[in-house]
Amino acid sequence: MLDDDDLALFRDAIKGTKPLLQNEFVAPQKNYKEKQQIREQREKEDTLFFFSDEYEPLLNEEGAVKYLREGEDSYLLKQLRRGDFSPELFLDLHGLTKEKAKIELASLIQACEKENIYCASIMTGYGTYTLKRQIPKWLVQHPKVRALHQAPREWGGEAAILILLEV
Fold it and tell me: How big is the chain by its Cα radius of gyration, in Å?
């Protein structure tokens, strides 16, 4: 407790000052956009981690491109071939380099995870067949890819691949 002399001394020291109103609290602003961009970039890099150019899976390169993850029902491939699954996202890789295509593929898988989409279509086109041969090799490396098959005619035929993802 302050005695009367201390209170008088305090009042004398603050004479002429204006009292402050303290009825508002302004929280410090955090840069959420920047944090969101950093997190998305890290997720994309994590997804890119799965796509090695050195890995050579045992894919049957004669006939339709197809892959089924170990432990999955073989009926999934038949459903993909017949077009029982309708892709909700489409990725067109025409005219892209391998590196840009790899980044776009990682973004597609990330977007499918974020939006809970289980089927997507990837248009590889014909061209030099570079992407058509490479895309399946990358996809089989990703742990979220359950199956892939050359798309039926209505979803692009030989120039496209349907993928089925774990969501």
Answer: 29
Instruction: Please list, residue by residue across 124-136, b when 16 or more beta carbons sit within 10 angstroms of its beta carbon and e when fewer do.
Output: bbeeeeebbebbb
Q: What is the pLDDT along the chain (167 residues), one digit of tens a residue?
A: 778 899 899 889 988 888 887 788 777 777 778 888 887 777 766 666 666 666 566 666 656 788 888 888 888 888 888 888 889 999 998 888 888 888 888 889 888 988 999 999 999 877 777 788 888 888 888 888 899 988 888 888 888 889 999 87
pTM exceeding 0.85 = no
Rounded (5°) CA angle 27-32-36: 160
